[in-house]
Amino acid sequence: MICVESTIAIVRFARTIEGDNVWSHDRDLKRFPCPVQCIGHSSSVPITVSVLGSGSRGNATFVRTECVRLLIDAGLSRKELATRLQTIGEDPDGIDAVLITHEHTDHAGGLNILLKELPVDAFLTAGTLAAVQTEPFELNRSKVITIEPGVAFKIGDVEILPFKVPHDAAQPVAFSINCGGMKITQLTDIGYMPDDVAHQLRGSHVLILESNHDLEMLRVGPYPWNLKQRLMGRYGHLSNTAVSRFIREKYDGKAEHVLLAHLSSKNNHPEIAIQEAKRALRDRGFSPATLAVTSQDEPTVPLRL
User: Which domain, by its residues, includes 135?
Assistant: First the structure.
């Protein structure tokens, strides 16, 4: 590993809100805990990944590198987030930055309190910011930074690419995170899998992928018809069938870990989702050994990369 002395993380092409100040140029963020800007990955300090919770009652994924501690989404309460971080052996206040995919409550409902209680930086698209900021944020040395789909930016030793996805939100994105040659991609809340989105998943070492519902369970389930139509629509959520189609037609088979996420508690079952994905992996000649499901109620066992 080659390290260059630095105490800054450069966020490119970002618009930052801090109090009454707004910037539209490169901005140095000086609060990250790493005393160096790292180039390359140190095997002595593994990257940690844990899905703290995934589902309609709240979503958050934790990623820790040598230099920064990230959340993808803030859909859990402050108390629940702290509890789950402690469960995986992490500091309950140990968050430097939050990446918000879209404004729905199960993904952004805990953002306000995080900005108020912790000195974190929140990264979200302008459309998501406009939708989620119904009143001014209370910032405790926090910053809110707008990002553009398709434009990569850096936080500490991590490069992050937000890419647009089809979902019924203002300006939704998913995120790929790259650090030291390792790629972590999380893709949930997506109605279907366009070619350009499938391309963004290629080369992922960890792939966190929505497998929201079983089509037959949804059709005969308790939801009203208009909600069923929304979930099955092109701006809704990805079904088990759509996941297996992606695996058979577009998946590159490179991921060391595939985590099925955002499973419906009423219209899916972990074993159904796992078995359908396993069949698709076997049909492609890929090993299903790396496949697992996330939970709404507890964090996944941390992956060490």
Answer: 2-42+124-295
